[in-house]
Design a protein that fits this description.
The complex is a heterodimer of chains A (about 325) and B (about 240). Chain A has about 325 residues and is mostly helical. Chain A has one domain: Orthogonal Bundle (ABC transporter involved in vitamin B12 uptake, BtuC). Chain A has 13 helices and 2 strands. In chain A, about 70% of the residues lie in helices and about 0% in strands. By secondary structure, chain B is an alpha/beta fold. Chain B has a single domain, classed as 3-Layer(aba) Sandwich (Rossmann fold), CATH 3.40.50.300. In chain B, the strands form 2 sheets. A 6-stranded mixed beta sheet of chain B has the order 6-7-8-3-9-10, with helices on both faces. Chain B is globular, with a radius of gyration of 17 Å. The chains are: A mainly alpha (about 325), B alpha/beta (about 240).
Amino acid sequence: MKRHSKAFWPLLIAALVFYAIVQGLIMTDMLGAYHTNTLIFIAINIILAVSLHLVIGITGQFSIGHAGFMAVGAYLSAIVTMKFDLPFVVAIIVGGLVAALAGLIVGIPSLRLRGDYLAIATLGFAEIIRIIFLNIDYVGGAAGMQVSKMTDWTYTFFFMLITILVIVNFTRSRHGIAALSIREDEIASDAMGINTTYYKVVAFVIGAFFAGVAGALFSHNFYIVLPSQFGFLKSVDILILVVLGGLGSLSGAIISAIFLTLVSTFLQDYPETRMIIYSLVLIIVMLYRPQGLMGTKEITDYFRGWTSKGGKDNGKDTIT
Amino acid sequence: MTMLAVKDIDVYYGNIQALKGVTVTVEEGEIVTLIGANGAGKSTLLKTLSGLLKPKSGSIEFLGNSIAGKPAQGIVKSGISHVPEGRRVFANLTVEENLELGAFLRKDKKGIEADMKKVYDTFPRLLERRKQMSGTLSGGEQQMLAMGRAIMAKPKLLLLDEPSMGLAPLMVKTIFEVVKDINEQGTTILLVEQNANMALSVASRGYVIETGKVVLSGSADELQSSEEVRKAYLGGH
């Protein structure tokens, strides 16, 4: 059931070339700190969007507590680097693993719920996580925790690449198609003998892991980590990335992460009207593309149209 | 040989009792039909057999093993495959992916390929449309796909829930011919239908269910000629 995409290697090489060019520009100081930071932001948002895409877009579980898992990753990684003086890579992985564990603990009871109920439950869990950090003095409580800046373009880029590769591979595997069938029709999926609870939890845990990774990169990009950075609005921001990109489209999630990060970065010069314009952009996109920027299509679906001459078929072979 | 023995099962939706002491048996190689009005409990019985619902009391034996209350994936593995009511194909997946999902629990690649070919032989329309999103198929084609998907699990017992629902008369005829074909190739079938006439014409035996109870059972001929059944379900005089 493994579906290969012809575009896989060209895209991977293009990504690595892009990385090398940017890294070159950073090293020769041609790309300033401001622009580098924007790129880092985009990459972190891509990790968040792609990991939530797995939960909502592929498995169809409407979770709106992604910022909670991000908070776990942010705090745990900060503890690892600041209190235990361990390397940043270790911190990122620990952050991801503990977030995955949190995902497992939250997922097992709440994934029995469906639709709106699941949304409310995940929202509640995210708030609980935030409030727990708010009340732990060890991590500074409401005043937050001091963190050194360790996130750079290389770390962010490669963790972003790993996130995308893992989730693309999962989606194309036997497990991915099981997850897709849950999104399509959970009862039919049950009747096929697919262990729907298991696949929902697996998707949720993988999603939480990468949210934790993103949290680790996020917290080490500033000098401080605060509970208020991971409130409900952060979860909504991530949700918007996925919905705007098109539910079920990985490339859509990536494109909208790039697009919205750029929009909000450029709008920082106009603080008075920033939120108004940002909201207007969202409204306009939703009015004209209610199915999201990409719908359920992937960017490689368009590639295929060019490469296979005359090979017109209505189906999609590839998920990416 | 008795393939399926359902004895005295009670099934509840919360506090509401949907099945009251239902007893049904299916012999190997048969087509058995369950007929009855809306809400009688026919679909509930099928859902209980395939593990989507759990009986509160009573026993279900399939090939001599108890399957009451087992999870759905275990039941599919043991050889019962369910075509749920309303077809429920995976709309945003292709025809072929739907069929692959039907064989999800199987590991024998060659067998899966052979069965896929068999499904395409039975339903040439599906072969034509195998790369198409199944949501774009017509109702009849979706029913074919749902049945094909269930066959992909290589069941010993196939549970069919209202295969004629919402289909044009001609399509209903085709579907019932296929039901007969599948049975002749060695699959035992338990068929739920509102179209009692059609169902009794292919079945060897039948049960009539009313408000959660079996009120009548017998051979298809007996039921077809029974005054009660004719009045209530066949629209005869």
